[in-house]
Amino acid sequence: MATAQTAPANEDRPLSAAERAAWQQDLANIEFVASTYSAQVRACYERAVRGLGGEPPRGRVELVFTLSDVGMAQNVAVSDDTLGLPVLQSCLSQRVSEWRFPRPVGPLRTFRFPFAFSGSKP
Prior knowledge:
alpha+beta; 3 strands
């Protein structure tokens, strides 16, 4: 379904070993939560492609968001989209903003997270 980027969003300087370890733990937590809600992600995709002619499109939608101290996604926005389906963008943004993540471990709080879609029929 999705894998997060390999570098923190909006971070220009190299990370210390402790910062990198904390960031990797936060990223693993984000991936776990996203996999927990994979049915919601799939439902967003199916709703967005319903009624489209031909084969369902393949591609990805990447969201960028900031985790609050209590593990809520804030300032959720689309940073990249190869599908061009506004309904999918809106649905994914809404779902992610509702999910509860573990409290962040490290000081880096802004993440990019891609959702990839294989184009299979709903």
